[in-house]
Each structure stands twice: as structure tokens, then as C-alpha cells.
Amino acid sequence: MKPSIWSAIVLLLVLVPTTISHDYSDALTKSILFFEGQRSGYLPSNQRMTWRRHSALKDGENLNADLVGGYYDAGDNIKFHFPMAFSITMLAWSANDFGSYMSPADLRDNHVALRWGTDYLLKTVSQLPNRIFVQVGEATPDHQCWERPEDMDTPRTAYAVEAPNPASDLAGEVAAALAAASIAFRRFDPIYSQLLLDNAIKTFDVNGYEDELLWGAAWLRRATGQDSYLKYLVDNRLSFGEDFNYFEFGWDNKVGGINVLVAKEVFEKNVAAIAPYKDTAEKLMCSYFLETPGSHMRYSPGGLLYKPGSSQLQNTVALTFLLLTYANYLSKSSQQLQCGSLSIQPDSLHRLAKRQVDYILGDNPMKMSYMIGYGSRYPQQIHHRGASSPSKKTHPTAIKCSEGWINVFTSPNPDPNILVGAVIGGPDIDDKFIGGRTNASETEPTTYINAPIVGVLAYFKANPMLDDSRFLRFFKRFVTKSKSSTTN
């Protein structure tokens, strides 16, 4: 039997309806709550993760700037503005495309999390065109210490790129975040929405050819409708080569997201000039299905969409977001996905996306939820300084650098604080999960994992039961076809 047939049979087996039901509403609420655990700066009185306190209150002082606030992007205490901006873009995209599926409370909390980030991003571009702030904190000293944010005594150096040196990658990402967020706030706070859009336009006005500038242009086109951004998308698409690496999407590569985002306008307005973006987006979508022509995604034996990387579920969640988003574009336009001679219904894309979410929430070979605080079984030790350390309330004295390594990092005890809603790095290609604080690739949470899963969970909260019959018939047909047309 050829490997392709075996892959199809394995995928058929792992995508059958499961007996595990999930509370997508609970998971959605918790996925947004997670962002409160990542807050930096002065915390508000309504802070729900009460084991956190104020932190990093002098950020930006070395450059005579106010850079207090924003998010720690992972389990350490650095503020990296590039992945932070991507996280904000994805929170905004979740609100824009899936906000209608959220409860009023969840949508409000999404906007609160979004605004905590955009308020900070406005600070990072407040000195344009002369300067853009790129980072606060020094990675090496920070990573040498295991300190909760409230106790940090490592350098909080702020870094900036000064004109005329280019910072087109960060500028493009910040422009995308502010433009996307301007759409999210347009109906609820039009004055703030316009402030975000004005700053997005100003930030985009830089030179360079990074994929983030296409990303920024795509969001500015969606936010403004201006033809200048459409022209930019048309003129610069091939700067990266034909069909430039369309399999990738994450904080460090926006290509897959650009194609899917721009495809929306082709679906809605049939704009021929940008049709190549939709064509490439369809190649990405076809790659999720193993019996289609061309290159394909990989799956673990348990059915997890798998791309190698330092944090597995970062890739899974981001690509699942694109899969679900494109499925909705197909549904709303009453179209199918065409992969060579094969026609795939939008429901097949929906079901495959649902399988990924269910896997993350516990329907996997380890029978473990990879969202902290969701379900009855989830990892008890994660690679996160704040969660693993006693809170200021229970341990008011500072926990210094070496003390943190000795008494906290190596402790066999469960984390004293639950970082509710955090989606961690997850299992390996064989569905195995070792866990533990020392295993950062498996147990570290990040804002850029959680941001896209917010939208995905919102959709399945509103659409918890999907008809699997057509999906199963689809895969059975291709398995039968492959068997009959192939000799062993």
C-alpha cells in the first residue's frame, strides 16, 4: 500500500465523530481571560487574575519615553513588540470575523484585551517618523533569572530603531494591528477607532519590502477601502517570488494570512487584480487534504495538524484559524474549494478545523487539555515565571534571580497560580507530551497562540454540532478511489 493511501486511511480514522463533547463557551471565555495574566504595567482594579500585581513601571525611562503597559508575550518578562503586534492583529481579526458569534460579555472582554495592546502600540509609534520602539528588556539577563514580573531586577532597557534606519517589518506589523483594531472598535468607539487608523496610516508610511508591509497594506485596504493599498498589494506581490512560501503563518511569517485576508475581497467584490492572492490561498487550503494534488500538510497519528517549530500549537492554531476563516468565506459566497478536479465542501474545512480544536481541548491520545484550567486534566507545571512562583499576596518578599531557579523552577510541586486559558506549546509529532517547567517547547504559553484561538472558539461556541456525514463520505470516496486505482 502506498504511503499516500495509508495517510488517507489514518486521517479518515482520526477525523471520525468523537464521543467527547466540549464546552466551547467556557474555553472561549478562558482563552480571553488568559491575556490578563500577561499584562505588564499598572493593573486595573477589576483585574481578575488577582495573583498578578503591578510590574515594570519604569519601562522606557532610558529613552525618556513612556513604555509602561502592554503584554509579556510568553513565560518570560520581555516585551517583544513584533510578536505583541501580531497577537493584537489576531485578536482584532478574531473580533472582526467571529465577534458576531461571541456573547456580549466575551466580545467586551475581547475588546478590553485588544485595547490593552493597542494603547501600548500607540506608544511604540508615538515618535514616528524619527523613532519606533522595538523592545523593552534584555533577553539574556532576563532568561538567566527565574523571577516573577513583580520582582524584576534585570535591566529594563528599551530599544528603538532611529531614522533613517529601516524598521519595515515592525512598522508593517504595527500598522496591521492598528488597522485591524480600528475595524473592531469602529462601531463601539468611533473616536478611538479613527485614532488607531490614523496611526496605522502614519506607521505604514515607511520604505521596505518585508512581508509585514503586504500584511499591513492588506489590513489598511480592508479598513479604508483606498485603492492605493490595493495597488501596493498588486505591485508588490511578486517581490517574494511566485507563490512565496504560502504554507507559513505565524508571528514571524504572514504569507498565509495575507493570501487568505486578501481573498475575502475577491470573494465579495471579484477584484481581478488581486485574484492571484485567492489562487494561492486555495493552494494552502487544498494542502490540508491529503488526497488533493500538490504539497500537503502533515498530521500526527492522533490527527493534529503538525508543522515543526519551537512551539507546535502556535503553528496548529494559526493555520486552523486560516482554515476556518476561508471556510466561512466559501460558505458565505456559496462556493466550494476546488483542488484540481476535486471539489470540497466548506463543511469539510469546518470539520477539520473542529478536529484541531477538539484535540487541543483534550480529545487526543494523551487525554489531556492543552488549555490550562480547562477540563479535568491539564498540565500542572508550565514554563511561566508568574504562574510557577508564589504570588505577592502569599509571599510578599521578593524572590531573587537564583532563588527562583532553586526554589521555584526546580520545584516538583504544581504551579501555585493557574494561568487560566493559556494554550501551551503542546505535544510532539507522535502525540507524546512529557511536560514540566524545563520543557519550554511543550509547556510555554504565548499570546500569539491564544489570540487566533479566540476566534476559532467563538465560531464553535455558536456552531457546536456539525454534520459529519458529508465529511466522512468525502474521505471514504477518496480512500476507495485510491485503492481501486493503485497497485500494491
Automatic annotation (TrEMBL):
Keywords: Carbohydrate metabolism, Cell wall biogenesis/degradation, Cellulose degradation, Glycosidase, Hydrolase, Polysaccharide degradation, Signal. Coiled coil: none annotated. Its EC number is 3.2.1.4. Residues 1-21 form the signal peptide. The active site is at residue 383. Pfam families: Glyco_hydro_9 (PF00759). Transmembrane segments: none annotated. The keyword Signal applies. Residues 24-457 form the Glycoside hydrolase family domain. It catalyses: Endohydrolysis of (1->4)-beta-D-glucosidic linkages in cellulose, lichenin and cereal beta-D-glucans. Belongs to the glycosyl hydrolase 9 (cellulase E) family. This is Endoglucanase. The lineage of its organism: Eukaryota, Viridiplantae, Streptophyta, Embryophyta, Tracheophyta.
